[in-house]
Amino acid sequence: MSAGSDMAKEKSRSLTQAAKSLLGSLDARAKKSLGQNFLIDAGVLHKIVEAAELSPLDNVVEVGPGLGVLTGELAKRAGKVIAVELDDNFADALKRTLPWASNLTVVHEDILKIAPSALLAAGGLTAGSPYKVVANLPYYITSAVLRHFLEGDVRPSLLVVMVQKEVAKAITAAPGQMSILSVAVQLYGEPHVAVKVSSQSFYPAPKVDSAVLKIRLHKQPFIEPGETAGFFRLVRAAFCANRKQLVNSISQGLSLPKEEVRLFLDTAGIESTRRAETLSIPEWVKLWRVFDKGVSAC
Fold first, then answer.
1. Rounded (5°) CA angle 18-23-25
2. Where are the chain's structural domains?
3. R_g of the chain computed on alpha carbons
4. Are residues 146 and 184 in contact, defined by beta-carbon separation less than 8 angstroms?
5. Order of strands, edge to edge, in the sheet holding 59-63?
6. Residue 204, preceding bond cis, omega within 30 degrees?
7. How many CB atoms lie within 10 A of CB 61?
8. What are the DSSP calls for 44-84, one per residue?
């Protein structure tokens, strides 16, 4: 066994003891209601930070810092870290456990109730400041948090987030296995799995394995912010009837005559017999343009 491997195991043991000690000092325990599972694997911690490609010029938003294990590593490498924590105990404890981190701002708030621009302002940054998101996300709000940033008023350049392994598989799916979730993420960025993570890398251990997902956002979005609601109305309609042909599912989902839907599909160059899970992002965008403007305008 290598010296590096021994050091990583020793650090992991230290992280486990530190987590238990801090929880004890706070007279607290991991809350299932908030999806709290604390990372104790030093090797995974290193890979998360490495995937974030941090420099002293970077601004980072961390969601759900918990005991601050990842927060400390981010603060060592980034120029500014804004940690958003909902739990009262942990929000207060972060300020005490990381007193050296002068570049850290702790925001005691529900991430889904504060806009990205407001988060940047809380950290003393302007609304147009570039930033990255790095987080061990509470699993029960994974999709909501991703859309919160991807569709937010100020988008990050990169997201590096811990999610359930099956969610990562769904998000990175290729045409043929697409879902509403994969469309919702791939519309804005290019996702891939940076590292697979065992359930034993957490305290307490969850029932499922995880994966670190890295999403690099497109420089230019495929659609404008004002189009989002209409675009996803079409996508949801197409997926509303599992495994149905597009002409049937869209007709049913949008309450439109099949002949009208078939004409839209033909205009977009998409076979009406195809199924929603087979469409690529460019095809979704092309179909949306036809539905949005109407066939006569194309």
1. 95
2. 3-217, 225-297
3. 22
4. yes
5. 104-108, 80-85, 59-63, 132-136, 158-164, 210-217, 189-197
6. yes
7. 27
8. HHHHHHHHTT--TT-EEEEE--TTSHHHHHHHHHSSEEEEE
- Please indicate whether residue 87 or residue 177 has the higher confidence score (pLDDT): 177
Q: Give the Cα separation of 146 and 149 in Å (integer).
A: 6
Burial class (CB in 10 A: 0-12, 13-18, 19+), 254: middle
Q: Please determine, for residue 7, whether its predicted confidence score (pLDDT) is greater than 70.
A: no
CATH of domain 3-217: 3.40.50.150
Length of the chain: 298
Mean pLDDT of 211-227: 93
- Between the alpha carbon of residue 207 and those of residues 37, 144, 164, 199, 203, the distances in Å are 11, 21, 10, 7, 11
User: Does 3-217 match 225-297 in CATH topology?
Assistant: no
Q: Which of 97, 31, 27, 33 is nearest to 69 (CA)?
A: 97
Cβ neighbors of 240 (< 8 A, separation 6 or more) are: 249, 252, 253
Residue 186, number of CB atoms within 10 A of its CB: 23
- With CA atoms as reference, report the closest residue to 209 among 150, 169, 165, 254: 165
CA torsion through residues 168, 169, 175, 181, sign: negative
Distance CA 92, CA 106 (A): 9
pLDDT tens readout for residues 248-265:
999 999 999 999 999 999
C-alpha 81/C-alpha 62 separation (Å) is 7
What is the CA 209 to chain-centroid distance, rounded? 17
Position 33 confidence tier, pLDDT thresholds 50, 70, 90: very low
Query: What CATH number does domain 225-297 carry, 3.40.50.150, 3.40.640.10, 3.40.50.720, 1.10.8.100?
Result: 1.10.8.100
Classified as helix, coil or strand, 278 is helix
